[in-house]
Amino acid sequence: MSQTQDSIFTKIIKREIPADIVYEDELAIAFKDVNPQAPIHILVVPKQPIAKLSDAESQDHRLMGHLLLTVKRVAEQAGLVNGYRTVINTGPEGGQTVFHLHIHILGGRPMGWPPG
Ligand code: 5GP
């Protein structure tokens, strides 16, 4: 994808396409995954369009910490009291398909290990 083209997640942030948004603040947004892999499957996304984790830089440390604390907050809000899985797919071999950094929250069922 070209760097000048908005990702699908930027379009959600800009309300250009619909999503089931469950949380938003000045730095991040969280919405339900359109193709859920668990009873609860939410994506936590920075508003800053960092393409992937390996593109994050030291100056992004506050944002990166904020994203993890947002995961905690959103998981609590979703009632995931017995735990949940967090996933960040990075790059083609990491299984990433949308090149706008996001953290998956998967819960509502026991998770297997190792992941596929
Ligand atoms: P990745 O494979 O990049 O780690 O995860 C991308 C995720 O985004 C997938 O789980 C996919 O179902 C989800 N996704 C892709 N397009 C959309 C969309 O338009 N809306 C929502 N809510 N989720 C999407």
The rounded distance between the terminal residues' Cα atoms is 26 Å
Uncertain stretches of 5 or more adjacent residues: none
Count of alpha and pi helical runs: 2
Number of strands: 5
Shape: globular
Report on this structure.
The chain is globular. It has helices spanning 8-13, 61-77, and strands at 21-24, 28-32, 40-46, 85-87, 103-107. The chain has a single domain (8-107), classed as HIT family, subunit A (2-Layer Sandwich), CATH 3.30.428. The protein contains two helices and five strands; from the N terminus they run αβββαββ. It starts with 7 loop residues before the first helix and ends in a 9-residue tail after the last strand. It has a five-stranded antiparallel beta sheet, covered by helices on one side. Strand 1 and strand 2 form a beta hairpin. By secondary structure, the chain is α+β, with helices and mostly antiparallel strands. Guanosine-5'-monophosphate binds at residues 8, 19, 31-35, 43, 89, 95-98.
